[in-house]
Amino acid sequence: MKVRFSIRGVEAVQAFLRSVPYGATKVALAAFSEYIVGNKSHGLRHPDPYKYASRAKAYGYTGAKFENGARVPAGYFSAKQFRYVAAITHGFKDRGSKRTGESTDAWQAVPRNDGYRYTLTNNTPGGYWTRDETRQARQLGNVGWRKVSDVLADNYLGGIRAAIAAVNAYLKSKK
S-S: 127 plus which of 22, 115, 122, 135, CB 3.0-4.6 Å? Predict the structure, then answer.
């Protein structure tokens, strides 16, 4: 499972890139993409704050029943799934956040077309389930994970500022 995201259709970014002097487009795209990928304080590598959300809240009652006709608790799609999760969690005393940061650290900006295009990628299963536009798990959305488009919307102005600074530094070095 892989998350790939190309920035298209964001008018402010496209207008900025049209205004960049000839020859500095690669520098602007690299700076913008790296800003969107970000670090621990902003961008896709910034872990969203953790909050608890139960499976029952995310999925509700699904209509699943045990073999004896009793209802499976809310949040589970089958009796088999309920037993599987119960077997996994049996014995765990701490049910708090177990985030490792592996998924958020895996975001990268991959240059294409000689640096005139960038694709933002995350090759971990966690990136797929936490940030993908169409396949984000409902419970993870309730926990607080924002989709890629939401992160982009929150960070594209900062990305433009980073690109302007990079272009100015590039032009200053060429004079």
Answer: 122
Dist. CA 46–CA 51, nearest whole Å: 15
Same domain, 112 and 47: yes
8 Å CB contact between 28 and 166: yes
Using DSSP's 3-state secondary structure scheme, residue 109 falls into strand
Residue 68 has pLDDT above 60, yes or no: yes
- Considering the domain architecture, whether residues 151 and 65 belong to the same structural domain is answered as no
Q: What is the pTM of this model?
A: 0.74
pLDDT over 80 at 91, yes or no = no
**Domain region containing 21:** 3-52+99-174
Query: Do residues 48 and 127 share a domain?
Result: yes
CA–CA separation, 111 and 66 (whole Å):
51
Least confident of 6-10, 54-58, 119-123: 6-10
